[in-house]
Each structure stands twice: as structure tokens, then as C-alpha cells.
Amino acid sequence: MPTRVFIFKKLKAFNQFVNSKDSAGLQLLFDSMTDNELTKLIHLKYRELIQSFITKTLNQQYSHENKDDVYGDFLLKVGYFLKSYEPRLKQASFTTFLVKIVTNFTKNYLRSERKRWKNERTMQIGNSDFDFELFDLEDKDAQTWTLVENIDLLKFWRRELSTLERKFCLQKRFNFKDHLMSTQKLHKLQHTIQTKFHNFYQTY
To answer: Which residues of the chain have pLDDT under 50?
Structure first.
């Protein structure tokens, strides 16, 4: 069986065990995998979490007010996900995967999102009824306000990602247990991000 197909099947099993809160099933799944396979599974799952969060954030599913809650929920899911692997973390090589997956995957996603946004804006500006400067950003039912928001959100994410990249690259060994497994630190990180989001949207 090709490695990619094998890992996707393991990811499906992982999601089923997590959803059903079957810790015994999770342990059996981990025990059946090599460190290399487990590393690939973590990469794949992390990409899935990031893609889901960014897609929801950049689309029109959430209003200004609850975007910080969405990100907080994302952080908690990531923390729970990594905690599931805690017994095996020190046995596999996870030193740089966080930076690699978060920055590379997210930047690529944002790059394509910005390209799509530019195409939409060009198409819309070609319409004589379209006034780009007069969007009502407070109208949550408007179909157009997210175009303005998205381009600034891309800039915001780039700043956040570069900060993350510097932080993790400076650490020779990234200790997941001490940094993310601590509920107190996780909530502090969540609060910090929520504050940043709040301040960011106050500029409108």
C-alpha cells in the first residue's frame, strides 16, 4: 500500500477514535505505527486543522465578533491533538515540523487566497455599480465586506507567522509538553491571540 494512502487511512481512524473519545483505540493506533509514520500522520492532521481554521476565518461563516473565539477553539483543538501524542513526542523528530507546516502551508494558502481576492476585486470593479470605497463594513449581511477584511487579514497572518517562525527557530529544542500541554499556558496564549484580534478589528 502506498505510504500516502496508508497515512490517510490512519488519519481517518485517528479522527474516529478522537470523536468517540476512545483512548484505548488511540493507543493501539499509535503502537501500530513507526516513528516515521507517526510523524507523517501528525503533519497531515496539523495541516487539516490549520486548513479548516483558515478556511472558516477567511470565508463568510463568522462575523467580526467571534473570530477570536474561532481561533481560541482552534488552539484548544491543536493542544488536545498534540496531547494525544505526548507519550511518543520525545521518540520522534518534531524539532522543526511546527514551523515548517504552519508557515509553509499557511503562506501557500494565503498566497492563493490573495490571488483569488485580486481576481474578484478586478471583476467587481469592472461593474459600474460597484464602489469599492463605500462598503458598509458593519453590515454583516453584505456579500462584499469580506473582500476588504480578507486582504488585511492576510497581512495580519503574515505578521503572526513571521513572529512564530522567529520564536520557534530560535529554540533548538521545542518542548511540547512544557509549552502547549500546560492548560494555563494554552489559555494565556489563547487570550493573547484574542486580544490581538480584538485590537486588529478595532482599526475599522
So the answer is: 58, 60-68, 70-72, 75, 86-103, 105-106, 121-154, 157, 161, 164-186, 189-190, 193-194, 196-204
Rounded distance between C-alpha atoms, residue 76 and residue 73, angstroms: 5
Amino acid letter, residue 182: S
CA atoms within 13 A on the CB side of 158: 12
- Listed in sequence order, the residues at least 6 apart from 199 whose beta carbon sits closer than 8 Å to its beta carbon are none
Closest-CA residue to 172 (of 105, 89, 93, 78): 93
pTM of the model: 0.35
Q: Give the DSSP letter string of 130-150.
A: --GGG--TT-TT-SSHHHHHH
